[in-house]
Design brief:
This protein has about 240 residues and is of the alpha/beta class. The strands form four sheets. The protein has a two-stranded parallel ribbon with strand order 1-6. β7, α5 and β8 form a beta-alpha-beta unit. α1 runs antiparallel to α2 and α5 runs parallel beside α8. The radius of gyration is 19 Å and the shape is globular.
Length: about 240
C-alpha cells in the first residue's frame, strides 16, 4: 500500500533549524565583521546561499522550504533581541560545549534580560520570510521557524526578568504570549501558512546537569516544562 501524501503541513518530512553555511558565506560574514565589505555585499552572498538551499530542498523532494537560518548569527537570540522590552546581557553565564573531529569548542552563549514590558515592535524576520516566499519553487510551502517563547527564559531564568518591570511574573508570560501572537498574525499576513516554534527546552529539562542549573537559578525543574508548554499554547491561542 502506498504511503499517503499531504499537500498541506505538517508534512511527512520537514526541515527545522539551521543549515550548514557554505565556505563563501562564512568568508563573507567574516569580511563583514572585519569591515571589508558592507551590509549590501553580505546580503548578496546570503541571497545566493539561500537560493541554493531552496534548490537543494526542492531537489530532495521536500514540500516545505526554509532559508536554513543563513542570515542569523544565533538561531534564537536574533529573534529575542528584537522583542520590545528585551536587551542583550553580556555578562558571562553558563558555558556550552560543541565537538567536531578537530577539537572541542567551549563558549558562553549570549543571553538576554527583560528590562521592560515585552511587546512586538515590528514583525520579526518578515523580510527573511518574504525572500523565501518569493523564491520558493512551485509546489513548495515557504516555512518560518522561530524560537519558542521558553527560549527567552531557559538560560537565565527568573533572575533575568527585572522585578521593576514585572513584580508579578505571571504578567511577563502574558505579555510574552501576546507578543508572539502578534508576530504569528503578522507573518500570516505575509502569506505564511507553515510556522514552527523551535523548542529545545523540553529536552534540556531532562538532563540532570541542566536540572541542577535550573535549581541554582531558583527554578523548579520538575514543573518548568509545564510553564513552557503553557506559554507556547497561549502564544498559539489565536491560531
Amino acid at each position: 500500500m502506498a504511503a499517503s501524501s499531504r499537500d498541506t503541513p505538517p508534512f511527512r518530512a520537514d526541515h527545522v533549524g539551521s543549515l550548514l553555511r557554505s565556505p563563501q558565506l562564512k568568508r563573507a560574514r567574516a569580511d563583514f565583521k572585519a569591515g571589508s565589505i558592507d551590509a549590501e555585499d553580505l546580503r548578496q552572498v546570503e541571497d545566493e546561499s539561500i537560493r541554493n538551499a531552496i534548490a537543494l530542498q526542492n531537489e530532495l523532494g521536500l514540500k516545505s522550504v526554509t532559508d536554513g537560518e543563513l542570515r542569523r548569527t544565533s538561531w534564537h537570540m536574533d529573534f529575542i533581541y528584537q522583542l520590545g522590552g528585551v536587551e542583550q546581557d553580556d555578562r558571562e553565564t553558563q558555558h556550552s560545549h560543541f565537538r567536531n573531529n578537530e577539537r572541542t569548542y567551549e563558549f558562553a552563549p549570549p543571553t538576554a534580560r527583560v528590562t521592560g514590558a515585552v511587546h512586538l515592535k515590528k514583525p520579526i524576520f518578515a523580510d527573511d520570510f518574504a525572500f523565501v516566499r518569493d523564491n520558493a519553487a512551485d509546489g513548495q510551502t515557504p516555512k518560518l521557524t522561530i524560537p519558542a517563547p521558553s527560549m527567552i527564559h531557559l538560560r537565565s531564568g527568573d533572575p533575568a526578568i527585572d522585578a521593576a518591570a514585572y513584580p508579578d511574573l505571571e504578567e511577563f508570560w502574558i505579555d510574552l504570549a501576546a507578543a508572539y501572537g502578534a508576530e504569528l498574525s503578522a507573518i500570516y499576513g505575509l502569506g505564511c501558512r507553515h510556522i514552527q516554534l523551535d523548542d529545545v527546552s523540553l529536552a534540556y529539562v531532562n538532563d540532570p546537569n541542566e536540572r541542577r542549573k535550573i535549581e541554582a537559578l531558583g527554578g523548579d525543574p520538575l514543573h518548568m516544562h509545564e510553564r513552557y508548554i503553557a506559554a507556547s499554547n497561549a502564544s498559539l491561542k489565536g491560531r
